[in-house]
Amino acid sequence: DDGGPLAGKRILLSAGGTREPIDPVRFLGNRSSGKQGAAIARAALRAGASVTFVAAHLDVPPPAGVELVKVETAVELRDAMVERVAAADVVVMSAAVADFRPARRHHSKIKKRDDVPDAPIELVRNPDILVELVRRRDAAGTQQLIVGFAAETGDNGADVLAYGRAKLERKGCELLVVNEVGTDRVFGLDENSVTILAKDGSQPQHVAGSKDEVAEAVVVRIARALDAR
Ligand code: C5P
């Protein structure tokens, strides 16, 4: 307890991108680097919190000073979160979770033989972890604060924010950090530009800067939301 704004608070945070195995050599993945999640973990540590960092695939080393839990798939990520969520004051879902996974994992490499069908990979939907965590929190009747992320690709900023508002509503979390992404921006870069939306209806907060600066703003916002309770 160093007296920071999150002193004594326990944060459960997911970061990185899940990888859904197709066969022993291939997977379905995404471009999440885990940088923004790692930056939030570091900012939360600086603010005095203890952090459990559930890491899917990362392009960066996990932050020092966290309790590290490594996962690969969405289902593993879900299990890791559910197992630890009851102990958390704040949950941050910054991981990029695959919406679908291959229906079955082939135990040997799929060969491009003539008898393989043209579309050999059947997909099934993954659980929405964020929605499940909100539901569990509501069932437990606790004051846990839950923060979601939304990576949107839009043709203009207005679309992205409209999507974000609808998503905040649908997911039921208190805060949603919305950013516009694309292969030419955000992923793997050190800069970010986000809008923080709040369920309490307060003004959308735009933050542009390094991922560390965005992380600071998110942590300040979390601390403020906790204080308001
Ligand atoms: O619906 P969408 O994937 O855009 O929502 C993003 C938010 O939901 C992120 O916080 C992400 O971590 C979370 N999510 C999840 N489980 C999924 C898909 C997304 O928890 N299957």
UniProtKB/TrEMBL annotation:
Catalysed reaction equations from the record: (R)-4'-phosphopantothenate + L-cysteine + CTP = N-[(R)-4-phosphopantothenoyl]-L-cysteine + CMP + diphosphate + H(+); N-[(R)-4-phosphopantothenoyl]-L-cysteine + H(+) = (R)-4'-phosphopantetheine + CO2
Domain annotation DNA/pantothenate metabolism flavoprotein C-terminal: ranges: 6-224
Keywords: Decarboxylase, Flavoprotein, FMN, Ligase, Lyase, Magnesium, Metal-binding, Multifunctional enzyme
Cofactor, free-text remark: Binds 1 FMN per subunit.
Entry keyword Heme: no
Enzyme Commission number(s) from the entry: 4.1.1.36, 6.3.2.5
GO molecular function: phosphopantothenate--cysteine ligase activity; phosphopantothenoylcysteine decarboxylase activity
Cofactor annotation: FMN; Mg(2+)
Residues the record lists as binding CTP: D99, K109, P127, D128, I129, L130, F149, K167, K171
Chain positions covered by the region annotation Phosphopantothenate--cysteine ligase: 11-229
Associated pathway: Cofactor biosynthesis; coenzyme A biosynthesis; CoA from (R)-pantothenate: step 3/5; Cofactor biosynthesis; coenzyme A biosynthesis; CoA from (R)-pantothenate: step 2/5
Protein purpose: Catalyzes two steps in the biosynthesis of coenzyme A. In the first step cysteine is conjugated to 4'-phosphopantothenate to form 4-phosphopantothenoylcysteine, in the latter compound is decarboxylated to form 4'-phosphopantotheine.
Record family assignment: In the N-terminal section; belongs to the HFCD (homo-oligomeric flavin containing Cys decarboxylase) superfamily. In the C-terminal section; belongs to the PPC synthetase family.
Name of protein: Coenzyme A biosynthesis bifunctional protein CoaBC
Boundaries of the shown chain within the full protein: 184 to 412 of 412
